[in-house]
Amino acid sequence: MIGGGTLIGLSNLLTGNREFDKIIAKAQLGNNSKVDMLVKDIYGENSPFSLKGDLLASSFAKIANDQSPTSVSVKDRYAEEDVLSSLVTMISFNIG
User: Which of 14, 17, 22, 86 has the largest CB neighbor count within 10 A?
Assistant: First the structure.
């Protein structure tokens, strides 16, 4: 139910890109930690649960919690490569 079609559909919706090879290429240039919330974003480097700080806690959560002024579009505040990196990571984790 969540796979390649979801990846391409959400990529098209979020970035206007619907070519699989280009999505993957751009995602490889991105950094999902600029968009996703990691364990260290919640607990700092010392998680009380002994979790590594670079583990994914929530996909797209930094965008969800973005309190920046609305004068600049959300799409303009985040790099397309970072958004695609987050998207590919989220769907890959779901498949895995």
Answer: 86
pLDDT one-digit tens code per residue, 37-56: 999 999 998 888 888 999 99
Domain count, the chain: 1
**Closest CA relative to residue 93, chosen from 64, 59, 52, 53:** 59
CA distances from residue 43 to 5, 11, 21, 86 in whole angstroms, order as listed: 34, 30, 36, 20
Half-sphere exposure of 28 (CA within 13 A, CB side): 6
pLDDT digits (tens, 9 = 90+) for 21-42: 999 999 999 999 999 999 999 9
Domain extent, residue 35, equals: 4-95
Under a CB-based contact definition with an 8 Å cutoff, are residues 33 and 54 in contact? yes
Helices marked H in the chain — which ranges? 4-15, 20-29, 39-43, 61-64, 74-77, 80-95
